[in-house]
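Bench notes, afternoon.
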Amino acid sequence: MRTEDLLAAIATGLWRWDSVSGAVSYDAEAARLVGLPAEPVTLPEAAARACFHPADWLEVKAIVDLAVAEGTLAEARLRIVDEKGTVLRTVRTRSRPIARGGSEDGYYLLGTLQEVPDPLPGTSAAGPPVTGDWRRNREAFLLDAGRALAEAMSTAEVLRVAAGLSMPGFSPEGLAVFGVQGERISVIGHHGPRAGADHPFHDIALGADYPAAEVVRTGRAVYLPTPDEYRGRFPAAWSLGRPRKRRSWAFLPLIVAGRTIGAWMAGFAHPVSFSPDERSVLTTIARMLAQALSRTALQETERELADGLQRSMLPASKPDIPGLTVAARYVPTGGGLQVGGDWYDVIGLPSGRTALVIGDVQGHDVHAAGIMGQLRIAVRAYASEGHHPDAVLSRASRFLAGLSGPDGPDGRYDPRFATCLYMEVDPVAGTLDIARAGHPDPAVRLADGTMMVRPTAGGLPLGIDPDTDYPTTRVVLEPGETLLMCTDGLIETGGHDLETGWDRIRKVFERPATLMDDPGALPSHGLDSDDLEALADSLVQAVHGPPSHHTTGPLADRREDDIALLLIRREAEVCLVGPGSAPVRRTAVTVAQAEPERIAGTRQQLRDMLHDWADPDQVESAVLMLSEMVTNVLVHTDGDALLVAEVSGRHGSRRLRLDVADSSDELPHRRRPGELASSGRGLLLLEMLADNWGVDPRGDGKCIWYELYEAAPEDAA
């Protein structure tokens, strides 16, 4: 004998409720018990709820929630009612929640239905009085509804929350929210059988004979407990709308600070008498809904204003530079208005070259955005006049210092400074003339995918000292190399400092080593390494996407900042590396006599070049010899030191050659330093640590060089 036949013999039905979709399924016996034809059926939650007494439905939902939390059976009694609200029978249900496969929060509720003899048929559904349980449920419902409306961040979210409200004891079957626009009202949100655009009162005059219009005109609620009352008070609206499926209606004003901003309609499929308790619940919901709609409307207006302001201050179109590919991103993350002082610009120069600018004005407010707009216009004007990079930043610094003086519009002293990186690009020669004002240095991804931060000369941030000089550094961008300019938001957001921030960027910016040995290998992160747009998105995701939550820096605070970045890539003449060759890493740095502090940056550049060198001891030897060679030039000559480092060959058997040239004709000679001597060991170090070294005379001076050959640590001896 089948289980279904056995259960039918004892008048027991089976049902199932899907908490995710809300669908309720009955077998034939369960369908008969709830007043439906005796055949299996699946109904939406609203249709299934109409078969039960409203108060009982609310009670069983609370019992089910407790059973889900405790993992126990849910048992309850439910009154079955017809369309007129008359109780047909009382049934007892026992059910158990079962977790859904593949869903974290959803579950199925499987249960049985059995008829019990009490109460007798004929009892009105509207008869039972309001109980203390109903009042407690009402208080809990209002707390939940208030929290949900307060957490909504947009008008659409507020309307979704309002549509999902299930009030204790008298849940509405349809909801509508009306907004006021001049002398007309329109439906801005709707939940129920009719879509918002098809609603007969989607757009009506404020003086129309319609309950929502009267509520907006008078500011007083309208309660219509029966269809006859609706038809008698608003005959024109009744004949137009023909709300035959609903039995009661409530129209309440949405009032904020004494001003009516709209109306809220709740329609019920069963008769509601609108007792004082029920009216209290509806009035409270209307007040919370009005506050939430007013708040989100203001936030959306502010966001629209901020977005428009920010868009007007950024380049309108993607730059087109022959021989170069450019990608840019701006992400406002700081400040309540989502607007700040970061910007970037691409400027065509009279010489035919192109200037790239990126900067960051102190602060994340409207004032910072305003100063940013003025400073961007000033930099563009100075650049368009044909000034060199150092002159552009000097003039911009004086301009900003004048803006931040005590003669501001409000008479208060509000000094602001800005960091800036200005770069003049010659796409034919690949030269970049860079002037920097307190801004992070640019980073370059070499042809083999290695990222190196390029140290550049710089001065104070703009606006601090009007007479500051900004020296220019020339960098050569080789074919196939990519340069990154960014604000500190990309580096330091998430609790990172400069060191750990660059380490995070390196993981995304560098091309994996597999591309050097296997040109057909896939790039990292599933991205085409030559697609700058995808690379720009990947860099932003490294800071604001899910991976960023696993790479927070050592700082305790988590600071948010705006992000602006520019990527430029010089087109490579040969796109693919042949199987018998490997790309070459090369860097060149000049250390002036007046800038011995740049030796530290030079050492760091060499470490970056050798970050994947097999033997760490060789890396330390290379850095030591570099430091010794550059220091000797600065101490024993009157000229500058020009350093050129090159790594060639395939991984595991590469060669490092490092040249340090100067303008002195005096060749170094071997010394025999005593035990306590503080100098004279340079050539001894080269003999001991280098695999090969030498001194080459040149027409304008000499060049000291050494070579190291990569070896595994166990073979280094």
